[in-house]
Task: structure prediction
Amino acid sequence: MSVRPGLGELGLGAGKRARLYRILHEHGLRNGTAIFLPYDQGLEHGPRDFFAHPAAGDPRYVLRLAVEGGFNGVAVQIGLAEKFFWEYAGEVPLILKLNGKTDIPPDGEALSPLNATVEEAVRLGADAVGYTLYVGTPAQDRDFEQYRRVRADAQRFGMPLVVWAYPRGSAIEAKGGKDSFYAVDYAARTASELGADVVKVNFPHPEKRTAVKDEYDAGFSSQQAIDAVVRSANRTLLLVSGGTKAGDDAMQEKARESMEAGATGLIFGRNVWQRRHDDSLRFVAQLRDILAKYPSST
Amino acid sequence: MSVRPGLGELGLGAGKRARLYRILHEHGLRNGTAIFLPYDQGLEHGPRDFFAHPAAGDPRYVLRLAVEGGFNGVAVQIGLAEKFFWEYAGEVPLILKLNGKTDIPPDGEALSPLNATVEEAVRLGADAVGYTLYVGTPAQDRDFEQYRRVRADAQRFGMPLVVWAYPRGSAIEAKGGKDSFYAVDYAARTASELGADVVKVNFPHPEKRTAVKDEYDAGFSSQQAIDAVVRSANRTLLLVSGGTKAGDDAMQEKARESMEAGATGLIFGRNVWQRRHDDSLRFVAQLRDILAKYPSST
Amino acid sequence: MSVRPGLGELGLGAGKRARLYRILHEHGLRNGTAIFLPYDQGLEHGPRDFFAHPAAGDPRYVLRLAVEGGFNGVAVQIGLAEKFFWEYAGEVPLILKLNGKTDIPPDGEALSPLNATVEEAVRLGADAVGYTLYVGTPAQDRDFEQYRRVRADAQRFGMPLVVWAYPRGSAIEAKGGKDSFYAVDYAARTASELGADVVKVNFPHPEKRTAVKDEYDAGFSSQQAIDAVVRSANRTLLLVSGGTKAGDDAMQEKARESMEAGATGLIFGRNVWQRRHDDSLRFVAQLRDILAKYPSST
Amino acid sequence: MSVRPGLGELGLGAGKRARLYRILHEHGLRNGTAIFLPYDQGLEHGPRDFFAHPAAGDPRYVLRLAVEGGFNGVAVQIGLAEKFFWEYAGEVPLILKLNGKTDIPPDGEALSPLNATVEEAVRLGADAVGYTLYVGTPAQDRDFEQYRRVRADAQRFGMPLVVWAYPRGSAIEAKGGKDSFYAVDYAARTASELGADVVKVNFPHPEKRTAVKDEYDAGFSSQQAIDAVVRSANRTLLLVSGGTKAGDDAMQEKARESMEAGATGLIFGRNVWQRRHDDSLRFVAQLRDILAKYPSST
Amino acid sequence: MSVRPGLGELGLGAGKRARLYRILHEHGLRNGTAIFLPYDQGLEHGPRDFFAHPAAGDPRYVLRLAVEGGFNGVAVQIGLAEKFFWEYAGEVPLILKLNGKTDIPPDGEALSPLNATVEEAVRLGADAVGYTLYVGTPAQDRDFEQYRRVRADAQRFGMPLVVWAYPRGSAIEAKGGKDSFYAVDYAARTASELGADVVKVNFPHPEKRTAVKDEYDAGFSSQQAIDAVVRSANRTLLLVSGGTKAGDDAMQEKARESMEAGATGLIFGRNVWQRRHDDSLRFVAQLRDILAKYPSST
Result:
């Protein structure tokens, strides 16, 4: 088991440290772990994600869920932040997602354009900003340049930067796919090398070995894989993503292995709000029970 | 029926609120509903749109019609605003349409370039600005970036932002087309996620189901479809577009269903001015009768 | 009697015209005249002005009075605009007063510093900005420079500029005082020469002749004086100020002479809100009766 | 008793609201009241203020006291914020004091120069900024201009602005002095007119009547005086300052009257840290008992 | 004895820390202490300072002395830095003195103007910048503003900022003079409050008690005084200045008491170079013997 680094070891300026302290030690379990609620699927996938549980199409419903469920933060695009966050301002940390796109055009050269700025996140009282970096696409150079400006602004304003590190594009598809251990491990390290404060990754699948680099073409367990991914992220705090809705037991096992590896927490959206309200809260309570076993010092 | 949100619930600053109040409560029926007159077809389609009723090719004629018909606003490009609006300044709210293009080149990678700025809209005394966002085209990333700057300026100047949310491009054509329920619903949500104050959509066609996402491949009624679209727009006020001229009864039925769903109003151009003057006023009066039944509080 | 110029004769761009149209033809009597409610005395004189009628110390009370009394606008400083106007946004035009000061230090070199900008007025949805120009003080050069930047911004944003033209300073005191015909006439012309759209003056006192320039040292009637002042303002619309609370009959006579001279209207603060609520409304109704006799065309 | 306004009534944008929510509802008593610990006396008066209790000369001691005493915020200059706040980042809200001066030169034309910017406050993770406005000095015009830029930046970044509203200068000395009811009441209103979110005033002394304006030359009780001052501040939240160290009973009586009047809280420095550590905590506990009786809703 | 803080406790970013590490741990005794050689007297006093030892008028001579004497840095104005430092670049740390003035005009409203920028210091390879802050003069507000910009630039470029904190002006002269314990103590604290990384002060004279604040009007020893001054500087590293040339024993006693109090080191100019070369080196060796007894950790 890796030991999760404390906030004092990350080389952070006072602003990033104050904001991460608020997220990790003044919300949720207040023990240095975190569960975030992402809610940008209305843009990334369209309203179809709400058909399973129409109430979740209403941003008020989801913000209220974030408060009631004791989440450490909720991640939304600028439009929902402007129109809905003011009612809950201060009650739950806001992660303003700065870029995003629809899934209508094909994904081969995916680049997620900026829809908002770090300065706007400051104005809205956000405690962090989010950026989707598509690792490995042919548009990677434009993506890195766009990202660099966001990172520099985040540094200037003392705003923690959460990177959604998503392997993507035809080259990734040809080498094990976007959630292979190879791809996820590379994405975690890329976020760390490029200065993310927090990185969100999919849980790695060591069994997806088709055409991956030789080093990954071996019989790793999922625990070994997530251990390695957390090590690759080093002083970039790591969040494991839930992805599409799956069985509760499987999700909890993922969560347990991630925390055991030294992850800071989870970022679960559809697994949380694509179900009835009381069922959402029950599921979150189970996740909190897991996180409670992995406190970290400030 | 969704309940239309009042201006006080939208998280608006004073300037956007004052200007929307003027549009919705000091013009037209003064009951929180709206009918807008768009008049940028001379650029978007060319003068051919005026052949049916040549008088409508004269901007003075259309501005006068906007005043006489008790419209809540008229949407024009910068050139007509500069040369014609001064005579009617203050008599009818101006929505300065900021981008626009001809329909001469093919539409596969459509991007509507900026022809004016929010600051120019302020200088002209406009009460809102309009932006055409082509949702789902391959040029989506450049469109989103261009849009972001407009949104930020609109925020800075307290100017309401009306987004013409148009699904467009080859991927859309391959998935049900630009006025399928799937496409329109996604477009409405996109405008909301990206911070539009008002969104203009085409009336959704739930029967266009070829190759749409699974969730939309079911027997929805048109009322169910427009209900969903209004919900997807949430706190972004929704206007239903008239599109090409159609039968009056069909248009009125669309209007009725839209208002029943919680839309704020209508934006009808060709259906209004592609006919004789008295016929235009008669048709508008019928639409007003419908809107009068759906007042909202401030 | 001078004929008040219509909005079409003032050489205004569309934005200034649209906003003045709203003020003069969409609020109050909607006949081209205006009564404004100034409410910056809390800064200019301190809370002592509210001791006569404590309810008027509450900005909500005064804003409500502006709406109920059918005023054409209310003039406040940025702080009250930010904290109170949003509730009434759009219901009554806002004139954002851009400069202001306390009356604590001595007035000999009075200069009223900028507390807000034209751009902030745009953001708040104001329909005009106000600027106090101290005509004739030793600090006149700094005042003119500061004013020039405000005027240029007002031009750039199409925002009508209302100048509080106040003769002030030791030189004025030595030549008939700040409300002599000489001083008021000079102040009105100064505002016009320097590009004000609207000028607010005190009612001129032709009997204050001690040490005034020879031309003013003659037996002018008050009607002759205000006629001349309105002519000096030429295409700058003129408002007559109420000043300290005085008898109702005297105020109405001032109002009648001013309108007869071609003034556009009145700007009465303490005379309105330093009395009981129903008495305020009764007094305003009397003033409206006078203004109703002096309509102007658009 | 005035009713203290809730955060939802103040016309605040999301960022100011989120940060004030954190200060008022996530620290201290979490009931909408506040006790702040100001610690800029080392600059304003010099180290002599620490001779009574030398431990308090060490910023670590005072920051720790702020955390242990459950303060709602600590106000320091940029130098101490840079060198000491990082250790406590997130544990107690930081109010970065933006201007300040030594008391060595004479005070007749006092102007407190800017030592830091709002952007630096953002970078440090501050939850508010502080500005000392000297109301009534001959340098008032330069002070207002400097303040205006701070206010505009605070607006732009969604950062609450706390104004230390201090009557000062020879004209104030000639009219009752800096803590007369007249002077304090005017200062509170000035902060409100100029857009402060929170105002810090000294407790008013209605018995200081020499040469004050007539309205204040009457037999007001101290409760009547503080009631009026809170009303003058209207939607600007009011903090009462402790000033030089005085008897505990007198301080508590001031606190009680202030809260009864509708103040939001207290800002006590020397009264807190110019005594032994356990005595500080005991005194603060007494103040908290008072504040606990005056909760406000969010 | 205060314990001198290590570099890791100062809240420094990486750049300031790297440069201070070079100064304190890679030059001189390499034990965390420092002796600096200031050489801006040619501007501050004119060439008269070189008459006692003409060779010292040649900047090459002094730079060579800095290298040979094992100094931790040499402080010069931009002109000498441009023309002479290149020959010794990297051999001895450069402190670029950013402001400075002649002593020809009277000192009552002293303000030391900027002669160079932090960016120029970067270009020249300097390891720190120096700024003279005149604490307590009537021009204090302009001085603080000029300083603020330097401090912000130093922060932005990661450049350590050394403040020459000099009490000055008529008010200081009237209260014990510029090297009274009161004045020096206040100056040290001011540098700390305003964000200096290192502060240079004159050795305090507790016996200068005429008209000082009461707290300082007591029988303090010089050790007690320098102890207090170091505490007032807290996490701002403190250097004691040599001032005019004095007896070696007295200087060494000052040095000993300063180091005992927790100072980081000495900044001795005229005492070093206003004597023969070998005598300079001998004197410096004696000072180094003292500093060797006060190592600090990194």
